[in-house]
Amino acid sequence: MRRRMGRWTDGRTVVALLAGLLLSARPTVRLSAQAFPTTPPRPTPLTPVRFPPFKEATLADGLQLVVIEHHEQAVVSVTLSFRAGGIYDPPGKEGLSSLAADLLSKGTDSRSAEQIAAAIEGVGGTLSATSGDDFLTISAEALSDEAGLVFELLGDVTRHPTFPESELELARTRALSALALQLSQPSAVAQRFFGKEIYGRNPYGRSATRESYRAVSRDDVTQFARQRLRPGGALLVVAGDVTDAQVRELVTKAFEGWHGAPPPSPALPAPATRVGTDILLVHRPGSAQANITLGNTTILPTDPIYYPGRVATQVLGGGADSRLFLILREQKSWTYGAYASLHRYRGLGYWQATAEVRTEVADSALRELRHQIERIRTDVIPDSELAATKGFLVGTFPLTIETPSQIATQVATVKLLGLGDEYLRLYRDRLAAVTALQARAAAARLYRPGAFTIVVVGEGAKLYDRLQGIAPTRSVDVDGKPLTLADLTPLTGPVALDSAQFAVHIDSSRVVIQGNPVGFTVSEIRRPAPDSLVYAERSNLGNGTFQQQTTLVLEAATGVVRRVDQVTIQRGQKAETHLTYAGGRVKGASAAPQPDGSVKRFDVDTALPPGTVDENAVPFMVPALPLAPGKTFAVTFFTPSENVVKVLTFKVGAPEAVTVPAGTFQGFRINVTGSRVPFTMYVGTDAPRRVLKTEFVGQPFLVELVK
User: Does this chain's domain 54-254 share its CATH topology with 279-488?
Assistant: First the structure.
């Protein structure tokens, strides 16, 4: 996937990364005429799964130990799981469990983060911790000769983590970056709202936010680990080239003196009960597609209907040969993929169907999704389709228990979800025994159309009427704030700028990609005469690979753009743009470098809505807006490189501390949507306001003030 890094509507005009594709010519392969079989071979009888036996014990400290001797590979894999997942995060501090997991290997009483990493990596092993909804799991793996070191490190990070403040801040920064990437992806936005809709007040429906990550303190992490990372009720699974006696000895040494149990788990609120279907439309300005997610809560993990439900879900949308994929993609050409999945938690699970489709066919795609769901609820699956699906599920299962790590993970899942000791041995047989009638009955029970939650993420103004024709539709923004129909098409027009922000000054900023400076941009406001105003910006990236000089001539009193001159040199290709704005039109000539190295040139003579601004004026205009926390501005921009008009929305947050090379300042956080790549600007609160930093959601680069 190519990331667009250019113009202000996709990000500031300070980055242009263009990759060329090197295509090697390949000789034509001649296929000799031969008879190909027209029918697939008959399936061979199932070979029994040779799952290694395991030994279980509950130790004196309450730790449940499972040992699987698997001597085919000289490796040992260990997982240690606690009931300490995200559902145990306190309200308002969602993400605490995730941060705690991240920090476990970042320092102990006797080792620094660097020493822990050096110790395990020095023997070619791995050590990490992750947090899911139900459980926090510490995993380690190395050659079996290093089993002693594995358990020594496992015991150390579990029992003696120090959670250094500096490491917490790094972990928080990583979490916030990952969250920003998530929120840039419509599918992730849809998933967050879907979970909240189907689970309501139940913790399974909660998601971490910027505010909740920032609310977590070192004391919170320390207390969480002290309370929940206890041997009572924990599960330690060891698989690999080890013996039960050897593991017992290593566990005793690594966890000697460990004791205690976590506090009782609070009763979880019942998931939300739905008595009818409506549609939640999440307005994401600028989205070119609509992301559809629908489904409902289902069953507890031990419910035997899981097996026919798994088969039915695979038929519906489990892969590229499933009904949703073949119909919505192959037949209709509405999407690159449509899928369905069945999920299990320790509590009540859920199922969902998803598709990302063109906006103009969103209503048709949603109707087709519901039609296919109804088909599988009411019609018997044909024998050939059922046999192929079961053959796939049964045939691929052995691939999930080949390595010690896979074995440990599978056994841990079985134990943590209470699936029974025979689950892994009988899994394939139970799937193979599913009949078409059982699959239909399971689908009818699991997929409940009268209680569907439907979430659609996309351009609200283009989707609302289409969706309203299917079911009652309510709208929210990406933060969950309810929107009216009028909010979906915000009024645009001239915005009065604060002329006090037009003060003469020069700002120098650096461009950083993946933490490495790659260039600079210098912006300047100058007044050649008392009645004239000029904004100029000069950028240089990659040691001259990309150079750009932009000059805007503006009205001195209002800041309205009257002329734009821009020269871009990219890999030796020169492109010039010269435009004038007057009488409600923009005229001139524009040129823009293209990914293939060419330059696209065209004449411009376009009528503009009142208040339209040239996109190159964004860094000049935004600091001069009447900024205040909670305010939102919708501004129409003209994009010279595309000869199009679009609306950007600027949402102003509360001032916060912003640290850049130039220092630490109080700055407004301004989220900008409506472009292909949403971005966030941090604008200083002190006059004259300056752009302190610009971050591009889901992109590995930023621009930050140096002086």
Answer: yes
